[in-house]
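can u do me a favor
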């Protein structure tokens, strides 16, 4: 019997700068478990290429002509069986990054991130892990907070009210950037039980990942008095 071929992560690179695309493709092409399936110069082209190649991960620039990366991310993440999206930016306090995270992006990378960290991030995202911690997300929120604070807080609290008491405790712990093991120890639960609660929270609130849980907890004002 022949051994099954190892799984490779299919990646679509989306950026309007050909040099950036070439650099990312070269960087990722050196990893044996990652395959660049295509490149796109704007969001419209990206949507078409996702349909054609079904990548596992999309590296998405935000500022592009025609359809920008934010619109493309929102469109992709609204689909069933959507690829994971990592947004690329030159600023870590970009309000557009925050909107992309709210839309379901798995995280963001600065364009000057070291090559090995970008490769690691792609692998992590392909396995369902966000590439930034909720603590980083909270700092981002604090720097780009908008004027719709009261409306967003009321909406977030209404959504969290859909959870039972234990789920709210777990959601708060996720917002505090705690790992599953730390949450389990704090709440006297097993790690599998914590994972079950996190999955239940995501399903009840129609969220994609832990980052979105952390955003919702922050929006509800539950972290305001915490370090």
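np, heres the sequence
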């Amino acid at each position: 019997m022949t051994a099954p071929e190892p799984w490779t992560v299919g990646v679509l690179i989306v950026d309007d700068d050909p040099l950036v695309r070439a650099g990312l493709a070269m960087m990722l092409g050196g990893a044996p478990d990652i395959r660049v399936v295509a490149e796109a110069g704007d969001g419209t082209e990206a949507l078409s290429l996702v349909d054609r190649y079904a990548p596992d991960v999309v590296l998405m620039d935000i500022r592009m002509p025609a359809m920008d990366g934010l619109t493309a991310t929102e469109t992709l993440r609204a689909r069933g069986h959507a690829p994971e999206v990592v947004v690329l930016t030159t600023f870590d306090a970009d309000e557009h990054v925050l909107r992309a995270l709210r839309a379901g992006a798995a995280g963001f990378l600065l364009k000057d991130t070291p090559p090995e960290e970008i490769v690691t991030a792609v692998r992590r995202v392909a396995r369902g892990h966000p590439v930034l911690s909720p603590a980083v997300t909270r700092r981002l929120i604090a720097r780009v907070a908008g004027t719709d604070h009261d409306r967003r807080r009321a909406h977030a609290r209404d959504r969290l009210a859909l959870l039972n008491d234990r789920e709210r405790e777990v959601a708060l712990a996720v917002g505090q950037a705690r790992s599953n093991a730390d949450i389990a120890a704090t709440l006297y639960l097993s790690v599998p039980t914590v994972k079950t609660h996190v999955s239940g929270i995501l399903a009840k609130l129609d969220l994609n990942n832990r980052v979105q849980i952390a955003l919702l907890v922050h929006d509800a004002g539950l972290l305001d008095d915490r370090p």
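The beta strands are 9-14, 34-40, 57-61, 84-89, 107-110. hope that helps!!
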